[in-house]
Write a structure and sequence with these properties.
The structure holds two protein chains of two kinds. Chain A is an alpha+beta fold. Chain A has seven helices and eight strands, in the order αβββαααααββββαβ. In chain B, strand 3, helix 4 and strand 4 form a beta-alpha-beta unit. The chains are: A alpha+beta, B alpha/beta.
C-alpha cells in the first residue's frame, strides 16, 4: 500500500495545525476508541462571512492528518456557503487519491469541518438545530466507506432500506455473511448513529 | 535514508547470517543433488540431510528422525494440527485467545471438522491461566496448543507447568507448541516440557526464508496431510531445498553454540531500549510481562495520545522499521487482538509499538531510534486533541 507524495507531504508537514485560542466555533468528531479524532477551529469574518482562519488537531493515522491538513487549506478564505460544499471526495482528490482501505480516514476531517460550520451557524442564530430524521441517518450512512473499494455504502447501493420510528433505527444492509468487511461496516454504523441521543436502538438486517 | 537501515521487526523476518549464506552456496551449485540410494550423488545428499537434521534435533533435545523439514512455521503447524486431527478423529481441543493466528485459524478449522474447542483467556501479561486450563480439561480432551513466546508482547508461557497439568490428566492430551518466536530465544528441550509436536522457522533466527521444521515425538501418529512422492521428507512430500536446509542448520549452529550468551546479548539490548524509552518519553507503558518472563528480543510499549501508523511512518522516514498494533495499520482495520484480550483499551492498542531486536542490532541503532521516537512523539502529541486536552487539565 502506497500513499501519494501529496499525502506524505501533508502528513509530515501539515498546514494549519495547532490549537486556536478564542475560536468563533469549533467541533470535535470521532473518538479515540475508533482510532481517530479531529478537532477543527474556525475564525469567521462577520462582514463577508468568510473563513478568516482555520486550524485543526488530529489523533489519527497519516491519512487522517493529511486530510485534515488539506481540508483546512481548501476551506481557508472561502465563504461559509462555499465551505459547506467541501466533501471528503474533494479532500481525496486534492491529495491525489488515497488507498481504498484508507478512504474512510478522510471522511472524519471533512465531517468535522461541516460540524464546526454548523456549530457557528447555530450559535449565531443563522440556523436552527436540525431535527433528527431518516435523512440524518442517510447522511451518516453516506460517510461510511466500504474499505475494499473506498466508496461509501450508499453509493455502492449496499443500503437497501432505512427506517426510523420511536428511537428505533432499522437498516437493511446488502452485505453477505462471508464478506470480511461486514463487521467493520456494522461497527461504523453503530459509531455514527449512537452519538445521537434520539437513537435508542439500531437493528441491522442482512440478506 | 536507506529503507530498513535499522530493522527492528525481527519477529517477522531477520537478516540472513553471512555464514548461513555461505553454507548454502555449494548446495545451490555443485551439490544440487537430491537424496537417493546406491548412487554417490544421492548418498551424499542423504549424508548432508542427516547431518543437518542432527543439528536441528540437538538444538531441542530431539532425535534426528523426529525432525521433519517444511517450507516454514505455518506449514509445520498445519501438518501437526491437521495430522493429529486426522489420527484422533474427534475430541476436545484447548487453545488460548492470545495464540498465534496459525493456531487460532486451525482451531476454527477443527471446529468445522467436529472437534470442540475451548478458548482460554489470558492474564494482563498474556500468560495462560493455569487454573482455567485445569478446569477446561475433560475426559475427551485430546489436544492442547500454545504459542511458547507470544508473538505480540513476547510473554513466555509456563511450559513446564502446562506439561505437569497435561501429564496429570487421565487421558493422553497431545501438546503442540508453536515455537516461532521462542526458538533460539529460550532453552526449549522437548523432553523437559513433554512436547509432542513443535514448529520452528529458520528466518526468525538469521536463517533463510522458506524453510522450517516440525518436531514430531517418536510414536506420535500424524495423518498424512500432503500426498505425493517422498523426496526429502515423508510428511511434507515433494521437493524441499537442501540448500535452505543447509542454511537453516548453520543458523542454528550460530545461535545454539552459546545459547545463554545469545539470550544475554538480546536481553541486554532490549533492557537498554526500554530504559531509554522510559527515560525520554513520558506517558508510555510496557505491554506484556516485565523482566525474565518475556522473550529477550521483544519490547512492546503503548505510547499514549498518538496513533501507531503515524509513528511507524515517521520512523520509516528515518530508515527505522518497527511494527504497530494500530487498527489503521492492520489489514482488517482491527485493533490488535492480543492487546485487546489482555485488557488494553483501543487507544493503548492504536498507540502500541513493537520492537523486536536481533543479533545484529547495535546500541547505536537503539540510541538513534530512541532519539527519533522522542522527537516524533513530541511532534505528533502537539497535533493531538487528546494530548492537548490532557495538557489543559494539567494547567
Amino acid at each position: 500500500m502506497q500513499y501519494s507524495q501529496k499525502v506524505l507531504d501533508h502528513f509530515m508537514h501539515p498546514h494549519n495545525v495547532g490549537k486556536m485560542e478564542n475560536p468563533d466555533a469549533s467541533a470535535t468528531e470521532g473518538s479515540p476508541s475508533c482510532g481517530d479524532q479531529v478537532t477543527v477551529y474556525l475564525k469567521v469574518n462577520k462582514d463577508d462571512m468568510t473563513i478568516e482562519d482555520i486550524s485543526f488537531l488530529s489523533y489519527g493515522c497519516a491519512s487522517n492528518i493529511a486530510t485534515a491538513s488539506i481540508i483546512t487549506d481548501l476551506a481557508k478564505g472561502k465563504s461559509l456557503e462555499d465551505a459547506k460544499k467541501i466533501t471528503w471526495r474533494d479532500a481525496m482528490e486534492a491529495l491525489d487519491g488515497l488507498p481504498p482501505v484508507k478512504v474512510h480516514c478522510s471522511v472524519l476531517a471533512a465531517d468535522t469541518l461541516q460540524t464546526a460550520i454548523s456549530n457557528y451557524e447555530i450559535a449565531n442564530g443563522l440556523k436552527e438545530v436540525p431535527n433528527f430524521s431518516k435523512d440524518t441517518i442517510l447522511d451518516e450512512l453516506k460517510k461510511i466507506i466500504y474499505p475494499q473499494v473506498g466508496e461509501d455504502i450508499v453509493s455502492l447501493k449496499m443500503v437497501k432500506y432505512v427506517g426510523f420510528s420511536d428511537g428505533e433505527v432499522l437498516i437493511d444492509l446488502n452485505i453477505m455473511s462471508f464478506d470480511t468487511w461486514r463487521e467493520n461496516v456494522v461497527e461504523e454504523i453503530h459509531e455514527h448513529l449512537e452519538k445521537y441521543p434520539e437513537v435508542k436502538n439500531i437493528q441491522i438486517n442482512f440478506p | 535514508m536507506k529503507p530498513g537501515n535499522i530493522y527492528l521487526d525481527n519477529c517477522v523476518s531477520s537478516k540472513l547470517a553471512p555464514e548461513a549464506l555461505e553454507a548454502m552456496i555449494p548446495y545451490f551449485s555443485e551439490k544440487f543433488w537430491y537424496p537417493g540410494s546406491f548412487v554417490s550423488t544421492g548418498e551424499s545428499a542423504n549424508d548432508s540431510l542427516a547431518a543437518f537434521s542432527s543439528v536441528i534435533a540437538a538444538s531441542m533435545g530431539a532425535m534426528p528422525e523426529e525432525i521433519h523439514f517444511t517450507s516454514g512455521g505455518t506449514l509445520a503447524n498445519n501438518i501437526a494440527i491437521k495430522g493429529l486431527a486426522a489420527s484422533l478423529k474427534r475430541g476436545h481441543v484447548i487453545v488460548s485467545v492470545v495464540d498465534y493466528p496459525d493456531l487460532l485459524t486451525n482451531a476454527a478449522w477443527l471446529e468445522k471438522q467436529g472437534f470442540e474447542v475451548s478458548y482460554l483467556g489470558a492474564d494482563k501479561e498474556a500468560r495462560i491461566d493455569l487454573n482455567k486450563l485445569k478446569a477446561e480439561i475433560r475426559p475427551d480432551t485430546v489436544l492442547f496448543m500454545t504459542t511458547a513466546v507470544n508473538h505480540v508482547v513476547g510473554t513466555i508461557q509456563p511450559l513446564k507447568e502446562i506439561h505437569e497439568i497435561l501429564k496429570s490428566a487421565a487421558n493422553k492430551i497431545f501438546f503442540h507448541v508453536d515455537a516461532g518466536q521462542a526458538y533460539g530465544k529460550m532453552p526449549l528441550n522437548v523432553n523437559d516440557f513433554g512436547i509432542d509436536t513443535m514448529s520452528v522457522s529458520a528466518h526468525k533466527i538469521h536463517g533463510p526464508q522458506g524453510i522450517g521444521a516440525l518436531y514430531v515425538r517418536k510414536g506420535t501418529k500424524l495423518g498424512q496431510f500432503i500426498h505425493g512422492v517422498k523426496r526429502v521428507d515423508g510428511l511434507q512430500t515433494g521437493g524441499l531445498s537442501i540448500a535452505l536446509i543447509a542454511g537453516f542448520a548453520k543458523a542454528v549452529e550460530l545461535v545454539f553454540a552459546d545459547l545463554d550468551a545469545s539470550i544475554r546479548h538480546l536481553r541486554e539490548l532490549s533492557d537498554y531500549l526500554l530504559e531509554g524509552l522510559k527515560k525520554r518519553i513520558p506517558y508510555i507503558a510496557l505491554n506484556g510481562a516485565p523482566g525474565l518472563s518475556r522473550a529477550p528480543h521483544n519490547v512492546n510499549i503503548s505510547i499514549d495520545y498518538i496513533e501507531g501508523e503515524a509513528i511507524t511512518m515517521m520512523l520509516d522516514m528515518h530508515g527505522i522499521t518497527v511494527a504497530t498494533g494500530s487498527a489503521c495499520a492492520s489489514q482488517g482495520l482491527k485493533a490488535n487482538y492480543v492487546l485487546m484480550a489482555i485488557g488494553k483499551n483501543h487507544v493503548q492498542s492504536h498507540g502500541s509499538m513493537k520492537f523486536t531486536l536481533s543479533r545484529y542490532t547495535t546500541k547505536e541503532d537503539l540510541d538513534f531510534t530512541i532519539d527519533k521516537l522522542a522527537e516524533i512523539t513530541e511532534e505528533l502529541r502537539s497535533r493531538s486533541p487528546l494530548y492537548n486536552a490532557l495538557k489543559k487539565q494539567e494547567i
